From TrEMBL:
<keyword id="KW-0560">Oxidoreductase</keyword>
<dbReference type="GO" id="GO:0004325">
    <property type="term" value="F:ferrochelatase activity"/>
</dbReference>
<dbReference type="Pfam" id="PF13241">
    <property type="entry name" value="NAD_binding_7"/>
</dbReference>
<dbReference type="InterPro" id="IPR028161">
    <property type="entry name" value="Met8-like"/>
</dbReference>
<keyword id="KW-0627">Porphyrin biosynthesis</keyword>
<dbReference type="InterPro" id="IPR042518">
    <property type="entry name" value="SirC_C"/>
</dbReference>
<comment type="pathway">
    <text>Porphyrin-containing compound metabolism; siroheme biosynthesis; sirohydrochlorin from precorrin-2: step 1/1.</text>
</comment>
<dbReference type="InterPro" id="IPR006367">
    <property type="entry name" value="Sirohaem_synthase_N"/>
</dbReference>
<dbReference type="InterPro" id="IPR036291">
    <property type="entry name" value="NAD(P)-bd_dom_sf"/>
</dbReference>
<dbReference type="Pfam" id="PF14824">
    <property type="entry name" value="Sirohm_synth_M"/>
</dbReference>
<feature type="domain" description="Siroheme synthase central">
    <location>
        <begin position="130"/>
        <end position="157"/>
    </location>
</feature>
<dbReference type="GO" id="GO:0043115">
    <property type="term" value="F:precorrin-2 dehydrogenase activity"/>
</dbReference>
<keyword id="KW-0520">NAD</keyword>
<dbReference type="GO" id="GO:0019354">
    <property type="term" value="P:siroheme biosynthetic process"/>
</dbReference>
<protein>
    <recommendedName>
        <fullName>precorrin-2 dehydrogenase</fullName>
        <ecNumber>1.3.1.76</ecNumber>
    </recommendedName>
</protein>
<dbReference type="InterPro" id="IPR028281">
    <property type="entry name" value="Sirohaem_synthase_central"/>
</dbReference>
């Protein structure tokens, strides 16, 4: 405990958070078990070119592949399997295989070692998705359990259909930008759209009333 209390702030390396567009990028998964499956789920709707290298895959991955863009090559790992990959997930239960993947990956490739986050190029945060809203939680590897707890808390805070409210904000913003020239008026309307009433009406399914309220606001401030 003394060592923990005496740890100096700022002496550890922080990860840089970003939203990465991987559409059309080659993503290689080495492994076909539960660890690989958990990481695969995070790639839904990314439109990446996903290849799974593994002698076998669990049923959950088979089902996942029926709904998403991915291919499975049934074989043991070889260095040539990752030559064209932009991102690599070494997600096997065999440490020696994961080490071999790291040994053969190129400097420009991003690698995640499921059994050794400290030697990985990136980490995957816990994520709550509500439509186009993505909330990512990370403790930089300090406590994955805490990240999962915060994720559960956020899932309770943001309803399943909260994405509908985000979609409404996007459509309303486009209308405001296209039809109002005055910068201050634009800002005023966009700020007013964050009034909780618009979210409440959307979540409760009162779409007609919400749209009427928006059009009234738009007419008043235009």
């Amino acid at each position: 405990m003394e060592n923990i209390q005496n740890t100096k702030k700022g002496v550890f390396s922080m990860y840089y958070p970003m939203m990465l567009n991987i559409e059309g990028k080659n993503v290689a998964f080495i492994g076909g078990g539960r660890v690989a499956y958990q990481k695969l789920k995070g790639l839904e709707n990314t439109k990446a070119n996903i290849t799974i290298i593994s002698p076998s895959i669990i049923p959950e991955i088979e089902e996942w592949m029926k709904r998403h863009r991915a291919k499975w090559i049934q074989k043991e790992f070889e260095p040539s399997d990752i030559e064209q990959a932009h991102i690599i997930f070494a997600a096997t239960s065999h440490a020696e295989v994961n080490r071999e993947v790291k040994l053969h990956k190129k400097e420009h490739q991003l690698l995640l070692l499921s059994d050794n986050p400290k030697e990985s190029d990136f980490l995957t945060p816990a994520v709550v998705r509500r439509g186009k809203l993505a909330l990512a939680i990370s403790t930089n590897g300090a406590s994955p359990a805490l990240a999962k707890k915060i994720k559960r808390d956020l899932e309770q805070q943001f309803a399943e259909n909260f994405g509908d409210y985000v979609q409404f904000l996007e459509e309303a913003r486009k209308m405001v930008i296209n039809k109002i020239d005055d910068a201050e008026k634009k800002k005023g309307i966009l700020v007013r759209l964050l009034d909780p009433i618009f979210c409440e009406l959307t979540i409760n399914g009162n779409i007609e009333k919400r749209d009427q309220l928006f059009m009234k606001l738009f007419a008043e401030l235009r």
